[in-house]
Each structure stands twice: as structure tokens, then as C-alpha cells.
């Protein structure tokens, strides 16, 4: 160690400034502390804390001592006594005495030259303590490394994105899911703001800046765990749902030093929950329809009958006739709305047949194009070759197509293109209807299939909900994707007819 007045005086030197120097050590005796001292000399883990030492000889009155076996294959000379050790190694830097003989210890202090230090038997307890501390440290370090490796392996196997952030929101650590999605190593991600690191599956950024609703900010402010539901639209225009969690990581003083953020894609789970909720909603509508049919429709027929009868009267003034006409029209509108609700709530009588999807689609397009081409609507159709037959009643598919095309036309006020394509995507046959209209907002996309949700001045919001209901009851699926200003795509997925099927 360095003296208090530094290492500048010529009479002193600092052990830490003698890395290239080798300290020659001799040992006298093999009593308590001998094996610990050998471990200190020969074990590489001590090189971090002690200068480089070389054992040049051991003096042992009993050459048959079993402890000398520890020197086997190390070519360390064994001397008969300490005098022979000193005579043959006059340049020793350190002599360690492990005999426990006080007389010999006093003799050695007088006999050793000034440049040779003595570590006597009474100091062995410190050598043993140093050895024990090193062994304990090594054991703890190995255990810690094993636990870290196990924990990292577990975290890497989690499919959700997990990041450890500092209080500025910069990445300190991330699991394999984050790294694989970005295609970058953990080292390259560390230090970057979290909002620059997280992306969707298709590579689009999850955030363009730090989201003020992010749970990270709440945890940083409150020191408590937080969570939030976030929605994003992917590159294909599909709405995706994410649950984001944040957990405070505290230091030894209890202060929040880091925050762990986990992001989970719950789109599929949300879709199932919505389907269940919609089924419950349809059940409620079914019960309401029974009430409407008995409690509203009969009085409605009476109102309509009396109104039409009064309209035939010649005793009415112009204003009275006009008011009755309004009553008649509103009554008719209410009846039409009631019929739509009853049709929606009533189980669809779908006859599942084997249908040529391409033929039904082309027939529908030809029918629609006759009335809308003059309004600037262009139809473009594309079909993969050798499409199999699909499970679905032709008239039902045609009705769904007509309703979707009408929606597309209404979304293109100044004309545009409706692209219709069909092909195979295992295990379904798909039919895409794409328009170049104004598209849908994220909120509209979220409610697209909800009954009674509509953005039109007229209508009851049952169009897409009815399409979804009919397609799913025939064994298919319906999906929708949209971006504001970039149009909307509705995808119908049908079950293909397999060899051996004889439905219909």
C-alpha cells in the first residue's frame, strides 16, 4: 500500500505501481494457514487484489507432511530448514511463517534482511479470512450468474415485449422479443428512448413520441405500478389492441431507480371478448324484438290504418293533409326499422351450399356496374386460377356483396375504384372488396361491426353487423381494415369445399 505522503519519495514504493514486478515468497512450516496461503499464491482470482507472487521454496522440518502434496507438479523446492531457504534465496521479498514457534519467529525477525518482510503465524488468521472471503465471493458470483442466466432465459422465452428503462425512458435492457422484432442486438438498443425501440409486428413504430398516456409516466410520477389499454392500426389497416404494464424497480434505499415496461398484444383475446359481448347483445336484441313485435307493431298498424283512412277524407285542409302525410311516412319508417331489427335478431336461415364464388361475384359486379359506372365508379376484378367451390348460399353471398359495394360507393362521393379479388389463404378462400374512399377513423373501425352504429344520416347501423352474422353462421369469417384517406377493405373468408363433401 502507499504511505500517507505518497509514492514520490525514493525510500518508498507502491505495490499497485509494480504490476510488472514479481514478488518472491518463501514459506516456513506447514501449520494452520499454510494451505490457505498456497491458495492465495496460486489462485488467479486473487490477481485482481494482490501483486503477482511466486513461491520459490518451502522449509519444513517434516518433509513427509501430507500438506506438501499440494505442491505436487509445481516444482517448488523443499528445504530442510529455514536457513537453507534463506541462503539459496537471498532476494526473498516475503517470508511466511506457519510453525507457531515463538522462538523461531523472534529469530527470523533478527535474521531476515531489511528488504524481506515477515508474515508470522499470528497473521495467519487474516490470510485464512482473505481466502474464505474470496471463496464466498466466488460462490456468490457463480450463484448470481446462474440465477441471472436462468432469469434471462425465462424472460427471453416470454413472447411479450419486456424492457427495463431508466427514469428518462431510455432502454437499459430488453428481452429477445424486442430485439428480434427490431433485428438489432441488445447493445444497440440500450440507451435509446423506448418509443423509438418498440414497433408493431410489421415494423411500424408503436409511438411517434412519448405517449402522455403511457403507464411509464404514471409509474415515474406515482411510484406505483400502472397499466393502460392502447390501440394501434397496423400497416394493413387492421386495428390491434395492446395492454401495456409498468412496474417500479426500487434501489436499496427504496427509491424508484428503474421502471420495467411490458407490452402484450391482446388483439385476439379482445376479438373473442367482442364476439362474446356481441352474442350477448344479440340475445338481448332478440328478447327486445319479441316485446317490440307484440307491444309496438300492433298499435303501429292501427296508427298507420287510421292515418291512411284520414288521408282519403276530402274534408281536410292542406295543412292537415300535410301533417297526416308526415305521420304516415314516419309510421312507415318505424315499421321498416322494426322489420330490420326483427330480421337481424332472428336466427338466419342459411342454407349452406357449394357455391362458385367467382361466378357469384362476377354476376353481382355486372349487376352493380350497370347503375354506377355513370357515376364515376370503376370496378376491377382479379381472381386466382382454379379457385375451389366454397361453402355458402349464393343469394346470401350476393346480398352481402351488394351491401358492401353500396357502402364503398357511399364512401367515394366523387367516384373511385372498387377492387374485388379472390384467392386462397389457408385454410380459407378469401374475397376482398377494396375501395378508394375516405376510409375510417380508428374509433369508427373499432365500432364497425357493432349493431346500430352508423355514420350515415339514414340507416340503422345493421349492414356490416348483418353481413358478419350471415357469413359466420355459414362457417366463414369477416375482417375489415381501413385508414383515413386511404380507403377500406372488407375481407370475406369462406370454407372451401373439400373432396368428399356433399353439402347442399
Automatic annotation (TrEMBL):
Determine the domain of life of the protein's source.
Bacteria
Where does the record locate the signal sequence feature?
Answer: none
PROSITE patterns per UniProt: HIS_KIN (PS50109), PAC (PS50113), PAS (PS50112)
PAC domain boundaries = 224-278
One Pfam family name is: HATPase_c
Span of domain Histidine kinase? 291-498
Recorded hits in Gene3D superfamilies, A to Z, give: 1.10.287.130, Histidine kinase-like ATPase, C-terminal domain, NAD(P)-binding Rossmann-like Domain, PAS domain
Question: NCBIfam families, alphabetically?
Answer: sensory_box
Report the protein name in the record: histidine kinase
Species this protein is from: Desulfocurvibacter africanus subsp. africanus str. Walvis Bay
Amino acid at each position: 500500500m502507499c504511505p500517507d505522503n505518497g509514492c514520490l519519495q525514493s525510500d518508498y514504493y507502491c505495490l499497485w505501481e509494480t504490476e510488472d514486478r514479481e514478488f518472491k515468497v518463501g514459506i516456513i512450516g506447514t501449520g494452520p494457514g499454510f494451505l490457505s496461503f498456497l491458495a492465495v499464491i496460486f489462485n488467479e482470482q486473487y490477481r485482481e487484489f494482490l501483486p503477482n507472487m511466486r513461491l520459490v521454496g518451502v522449509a519444513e522440518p517434516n518433509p513427509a507432511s501430507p500438506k506438501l502434496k499440494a505442491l505436487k507438479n509445481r516444482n517448488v523446492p523443499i528445504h530442510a530448514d529455514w536457513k537453507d531457504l534463506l541462503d539459496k534465496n537471498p532476494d526473498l521479498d516475503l517470508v511466511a511463517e506457519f510453525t507457531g514457534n515463538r522462538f523461531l519467529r523472534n529469530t527470523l525477525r533478527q535474521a531476515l534482511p531489511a528488504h524481506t518482510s515477515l508474515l508470522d503465524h499470528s497473521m495467519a488468521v487474516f490470510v485464512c479470512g482473505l481466502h474464505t472471503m474470496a471463496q464466498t465471493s466466488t460462490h456468490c458470483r457463480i450463484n448470481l450468474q446462474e440465477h441471472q442466466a436462468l432469469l434471462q432465459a425465462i424472460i427471453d422465452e416470454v413472447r411479450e415485449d419486456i424492457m427495463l428503462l431508466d427514469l428518462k425512458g431510455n432502454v437499459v435492457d430488453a428481452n429477445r422479443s424486442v430485439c428480434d422484432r427490431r433485428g438489432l442486438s441488445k447493445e444497440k438498443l440500450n440507451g435509446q428512448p423506448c418509443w423509438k425501440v418498440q414497433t408493431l409486428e410489421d415494423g411500424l413504430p408503436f409511438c411517434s413520441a412519448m405517449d402522455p398516456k403511457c403507464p411509464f409516466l404514471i409509474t415515474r410520477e406515482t411510484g406505483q405500478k400502472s397499466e393502460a389499454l392502447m390501440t394501434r392500426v397496423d400497416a394493413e389497416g387492421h386495428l390491434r389492441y395492446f395492454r401495456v404494464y409498468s412496474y417500479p424497480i426500487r434501489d436499496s434505499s427504496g427509491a424508484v431507480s428503474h421502471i420495467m415496461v411490458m407490452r402484450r398484444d391482446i388483439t385476439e383475446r379482445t376479438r373473442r371478448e367482442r364476439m362474446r359481448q356481441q352474442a350477448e347483445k344479440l340475445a338481448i336484441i332478440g328478447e327486445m324484438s319479441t316485446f317490440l313485435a307484440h307491444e309496438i307493431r300492433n298499435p303501429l298498424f292501427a296508427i298507420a290504418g287510421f292515418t291512411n283512412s284520414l288521408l282519403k277524407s276530402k274534408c281536410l285542409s292542406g295543412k292537415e293533409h300535410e301533417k297526416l302525410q308526415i305521420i304516415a311516412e314516419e309510421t312507415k319508417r318505424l315499421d321498416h326499422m322494426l322489420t330490420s331489427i326483427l330480421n337481424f335478431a332472428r336466427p338466419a336461415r342459411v342454407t349452406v351450399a357449394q357455391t362458385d364464388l367467382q361466378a357469384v361475384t362476377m354476376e353481382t359486379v355486372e349487376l352493380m356496374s350497370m347503375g354506377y359506372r355513370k357515376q364515376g365508379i370503376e370496378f376491377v376484378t382479379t381472381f386466382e386460377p382454379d379457385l375451389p367451390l366454397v361453402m355458402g348460399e349464393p343469394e346470401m353471398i350476393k346480398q352481402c356483396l351488394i351491401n358492401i359495394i353500396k357502402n364503398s360507393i357511399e364512401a367515394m362521393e366523387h367516384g373511385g375504384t372498387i377492387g374485388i379479388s379472390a384467392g386462397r389463404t389457408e385454410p380459407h378462400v378469401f374475397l376482398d372488396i377494396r375501395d378508394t374512399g375516405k376510409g375510417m377513423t380508428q374509433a369508427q373501425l373499432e365500432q364497425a361491426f357493432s349493431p346500430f352504429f352508423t355514420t350515415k344520416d339514414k340507416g340503422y347501423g345493421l349492414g356490416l353487423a348483418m353481413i358478419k352474422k350471415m357469413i359466420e353462421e355459414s362457417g366463414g369469417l369477416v375482417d375489415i381494415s381501413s385508414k383515413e384517406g386511404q380507403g377500406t377493405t372488407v375481407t370475406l373468408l369462406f370454407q372451401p369445399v373439400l373432396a368428399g363433401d356433399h353439402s347442399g
